[in-house]
């Protein structure tokens, strides 16, 4: 019997005051060749990710690096790193002739904010529990600039009374995917330590340009065409809801994940067993559990034939032919999907749900990925499904070694979206084996109650 561990913070400040002391723009420290400052091409994957992503990285006090020294060092480092990521200092523009988003590489700079709180890190609550109040640790827009002149990146350093601090970063998703952002952070950390770049970024987004002419060679039920000016009953998972949502964190230890893997092993012929072994990964079993619970939490006896589609990101870097450089800085992820009826998810063996998920990733071949990119050249659209699992679990932001040490914890700022479920790294607990995951779920109260019951039932 597995006891469900729902993380309930001992205390959670719903609000706390953050005082802004200084706001400025940081431009590249060296003038680059202005003749090469053409508009920066964004791929069709980048095009649909025009929204901000906010992350907060918490650091304990360090005797040699008090917050004011860290702020000065980060400001200097930003100027240096923008020489290598010059697109980040530009501004997003819509090309009226093509209707495409581009970046004007005009070296206008990124935002830099210095702030403070009268609280200690311990007083703001459990860092593992996502707190909407953490939004105050990130600056999304600069009030001194016009809407069309907003930076693509803003970094805020907030000092706490204990000597610890938070590094809050807002970036437009069109600039980085998770791996690209991780490499950016590693490079920031390395330059801050007066060392060379860890990895020279590959900023060539033309590597993911559509073919000419575009060739859509697969049906793409996971993509939703946007009919501009027409009402559409379907909505994207990226849309925020106006409903009241309960937010809960379900903690899965490494031991629980191992038991899920055992549950995912199929019975039957040897070929099936061997095939399924390859799909029994930690990500697949956790995501299969989430899919079952999310689909059935909004189902009734009368609509069990309803189909549920789950979306999850797949990295393309090693799936393309030729492969993309691992240092590719842009968005090199596409949404894989799996579809099943609610009845299948309720009655079928857990091993089959895991296998359906793995088939979604297997589908993401070189040709399939290029077909998706070409689809984006022909249509305006977004990924479409009932639920999107966004995994921050293995990105390793908290493993980045800065001169002042590794973060105590790194997390995204909570979004008010019931159809996006986040997988967040747990702070390793040696007694539980480490390597666990926190599953962040936001649902209307009745659906949350059912989700929690189902979650417990599958783990039992």
From TrEMBL:
A Gene Ontology molecular function term of the record: acyltransferase activity, transferring groups other than amino-acyl groups
Natural source organism: Rhamnella rubrinervis
Family: Belongs to the plant acyltransferase family.
Protein name per the record: Omega-hydroxypalmitate O-feruloyl transferase
InterPro entries xref list: CAT-like_dom_sf, Plant_Fungal_Acyltransferase
Gene3D superfamilies documented for this protein: Chloramphenicol acetyltransferase-like domain
């Amino acid at each position: 019997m597995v006891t469900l561990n729902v993380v309930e913070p001992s205390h959670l400040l719903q609000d706390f005051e953050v005082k802004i002391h200084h706001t400025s723009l940081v431009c590249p420290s060296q003038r680059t060749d202005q003749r090469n400052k053409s508009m920066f091409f964004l791929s069709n994957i980048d095009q649909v990710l025009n929204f901000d992503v906010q992350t907060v990285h918490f650091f304990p006090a360090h005797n040699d690096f008090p917050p004011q020294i860290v702020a000065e060092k980060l400001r200097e480092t930003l100027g240096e790193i923008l020489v290598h990521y010059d697109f980040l200092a530009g501004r997003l523009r819509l090309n009226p002739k093509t209707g495409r988003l581009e970046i004007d590489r005009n070296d206008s700079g990124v935002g830099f904010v210095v702030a403070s709180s009268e609280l200690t890190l311990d007083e703001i609550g459990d860092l593992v529990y996502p707190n909407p109040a953490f939004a105050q640790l990130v600056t999304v827009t600069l009030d001194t600039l016009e809407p069309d002149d907003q930076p693509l990146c803003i970094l805020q350093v907030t000092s706490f009374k204990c000597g610890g601090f938070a590094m809050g970063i807002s970036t437009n998703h069109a600039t980085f995917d998770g791996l690209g952002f991780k490499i950016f952070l590693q490079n920031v950390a390395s330059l801050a330590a007066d060392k060379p770049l860890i990895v020279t970024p590959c900023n060539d987004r033309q590597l993911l340009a559509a073919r000419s002419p575009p060739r859509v060679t697969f049906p793409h039920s996971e993509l939703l065409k946007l009919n501009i000016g027409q009402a559409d009953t379907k909505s994207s998972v990226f849309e925020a809801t106006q409903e009241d949502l309960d937010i809960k964190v379900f903690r899965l230890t490494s031991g629980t994940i191992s038991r899920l893997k055992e549950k995912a092993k199929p019975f039957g012929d040897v070929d099936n067993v061997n095939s399924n072994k390859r799909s029994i990964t930690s990500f697949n079993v956790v995501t299969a559990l989430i899919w079952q619970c999310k689909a059935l939490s909004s189902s009734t006896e009368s609509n069990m034939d309803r189909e549920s589609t789950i979306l999850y990101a797949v990295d393309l870097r090693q799936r393309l032919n030729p492969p993309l450089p691992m240092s590719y800085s842009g968005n090199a992820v596409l949404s894989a999907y799996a579809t099943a009826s609610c009845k299948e998810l309720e009655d079928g063996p857990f091993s089959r749900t895991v296998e359906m998920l793995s088939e979604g990733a297997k589908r993401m071949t070189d040709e399939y990925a290029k077909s998706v990119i070409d689809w984006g050249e022909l249509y305006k659209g977004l990924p479409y499904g009932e639920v999107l699992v966004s995994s921050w679990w293995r990105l390793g932001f908290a493993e980045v070694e800065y001169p002042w040490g590794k973060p105590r914890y790194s997390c995204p700022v909570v979004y008010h979206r019931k159809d996006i479920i986040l997988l967040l790294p747990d702070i390793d607990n040696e007694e539980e084996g480490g390597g666990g995951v926190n599953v962040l779920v936001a649902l209307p109260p009745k659906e949350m109650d059912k989700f929690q019951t189902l979650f417990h039932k599958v783990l039992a």
